[in-house]
Amino acid sequence: MTRSSRSLPFIAAAFIAFAACQSAASTQPEKPKDTVAMKTDTGFDHLLVDNRKDPSCGMPVTAGILDTAHYKGHVLGFCSKECKAAFEKSPELMLAAADIKTK
Q1: Which of 32, 96, 97, 102 is the most exposed place for a label (fewest CB within 10 A)?
Q2: What is the pTM of this model?
Q3: Rounded to whole angstroms, how far apart are CA atoms 54 and 4?
């Protein structure tokens, strides 16, 4: 057997392995290229609201928003329906705690 004929099985195996890797990579689903701020299954995106903190309890809205309210031209996010209800009872007292974003 010549040297080139002995390397033929190795080259064939390498080609088959390469082809198998290429076909496996092409079956993976594509990830979305852009994300949009929107309501998710677990609440609202923090980019949709004007406050940095829940005005009732002080929790950062980045931790999760389950309810919102409109007040004096602002969209406010709340971590729970209970916090929203507490805010609705005395909004003027709690508005300062909301840490409103500047536009």
Answers
A1: 102
A2: 0.56
A3: 74
